[in-house]
Amino acid sequence: MTTLIFILSLVATFGVGLLISWLFAKNKYVKSRRSFISNIASLSNEKEKLEMMVGQANRELKEERDKVIELNQNVASLETSKDHLIVQLQTQKSDIEKLENKLAKEFENLANRILDEKSEKMSRVHGETLKSILTPLKERIHAFEEKVERSHKDNLERHAGMKQMVYDLRELGIKMSEDAQNLTNALKGSSKTQGAWGEMILERILERSGLVKGREYSVQESISIDGKRLRPDVIINLPDEKKIVVDSKVTLKAFERFASEEDPLAKQQHLKNHVQSFKNHLKNLAGKEYDKLYGINSPDFVLMFVALEPAFNTAIRNFPDIYDYAFERNIIIVGPSTLLATLMTISSIWKQEYQNENVLEIARESGLLYDKFVGFIQDLSEVGKKLDGSRRSFERAMNKLSLGTGNLVRRAEKIRELGAKAKKEIPTNLVKKSKEGEQLEIN
Question: Taking the model in full, what pTM does it have?
């Protein structure tokens, strides 16, 4: 009995345990299911958001692709425009050269077509009219052709001249260095003698630069400013009425003593005197205020020309800050070689300026030629209208002669048929036409 009760108790306990386990598992399952459903809803929302973001990204990507396509089309259009402009520039010269022949042929063909269709009298009258129109036009075309040829020739000469100037620059630099070194010992005289020698070197450089005296530069021009009389050695003219003043300075006494002195201490003192002489020249030149001589048309500096290259180089080696010292006083120091290079550059600028003026003149003449051509076309149109009017008047007069019942030709021919004596006869084609015209009128 006790055993049975124990077994029943054990079974009941096991059953209760199973029931509790089942209830716990069910509760856990319900919670897990709710969490799973919640996660599915959250993932669904995330999916919708991601789909919206993907759609927006696709739209933006399409817009960017459209922009890239549009930019590529613009680039292609610009490349095409560039190529077209290059072709136009290349063909412009040949078009100008062909213009005269083309216009002459068109004028001749047009005039011939008009003159061949008209009577001798009308041809003579209008031939004289055409001649009066074409003669000035031919002269203008010829003048235009000469300007184009002259411009082309000037361009070739300019390039050849530049090549020659570069060669001359090298040769002159060598020669002037040799001349300066050889003349160092000879120029031990007065400051006036040295100054004259420096001006001679300056004049030689100006002659070799390609600039024209009296046009691109002037020498020893006397100018008054604030009651003071100034006489710059050289005034260089630039385009747009700008000016550059060149002043020649020669310092040889201290340099000659420095070059010939053998004692080191005395040699060093002469070198200091040479550098000090340079400084004094710079101060004196700055005091003249040449850079303010022409107001707004003057550059902000003056060129101080030192004719002796060895003296110039010695001062630079022993006074490295000399350029800054001069520039603070609105002065630029130049030797023969650097001055010649500067002047040759200015000469090249002037040649380019003259070339540009020729181009502008060609453009102006082209405009006048075009206007003249338009006027000629208008005159020809008026001549054509008048000739058409004359032709219509002629046709009306001929119709009166040969068309209609009882036209004049037919009546005159009947008079002859009735026995009128006449020495001349009406042309057969006109008589035939009058009969046909009369028959048409009857029908």
Answer: 0.45
